[in-house]
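The material for today's practical consists of a large collection of protein records. A record pairs a protein's sequence with a compact description of its fold. Instead of coordinates, the fold is spelled out as a row of discrete tokens. We will come back to this pairing of sequence and fold again and again. Here is such a record, shown just as it appears in the course material.
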Amino acid sequence: MKRSIYALGAGLMLVVGAMAISPHVQAADAKVAAKPVITIYHIEGRRSQRVVWLCEELGIPYELVFKRGDLRGSMQTIKEVNPLMPVAPTVRIGDTIVVESGAILEYLVQKHGLGKLAPPLESPDYLQHLLWLHFSEGSALPRLSGDLRRMMLTGEKTLTPNVFPGSNVQLVGTKEVMKFIEAHLSKYPYFGGKEFSAADIMMHLVYIQATNIPGLDLKEYPRFAEWRMKVESRPAYARTSEVALPDGKSPDGRGAPAPQKT
């Protein structure tokens, strides 16, 4: 898939289409690209990268709008588009502004997937795919992020159990999430079951967040680490990093770094 890339003021827009066009085409010639299905308002290193990755996997034409190396500038662009809920991803599909990466990915797979990136509804893998598609934001990241925030506030260096305030009642926390993930990957190669799916795109950020938590030894979760290497070796992931992380990482260092070029 070839790209047309051109500047929008201090920002960057990418029009990605299925037509074979020069990657150096000027803005005036961008109309030769396939008409974008979706406009993605992006912040480097954030959840909006999931939507880019899905579009790259499925060959969905999209516009990617952000200000390279300028997180505040990118957020200001999102605030202008979506002032009541300025989050990344914010996307425009037709005349509708949509947030929530899980909902966006599920819609795009159903609308444009043509049987890819989700098992058939009648497949025994479908429930696994659907579970992990929503587990990322519904259960995993809230626990990991909650533990990380607590440790940052207290200065803790050792990951302790998550307990109900004022009691010794232990709740689900980071380690329980990680054990649940590792158990799944001991039975299945992907979060979507036998095949890579949109659930794997959603779960990728969970691994990245896990790397930020002090005292969490990722060597205890080898299947999760192997899975990460496997999904990051996909050509669509490399293309995503090329356009969504053009400098190899976000300005504040968040998110997964781009694959090393060999």
In short: Residues 109 and 117 are 7 Å apart (CA to CA). The mean pLDDT is 88. Strands lie at 3-8, 11-16, 38-41, 62-66, 90-93, 96-99, 162-163, 170-171. The longest strand covers residues 3-8.
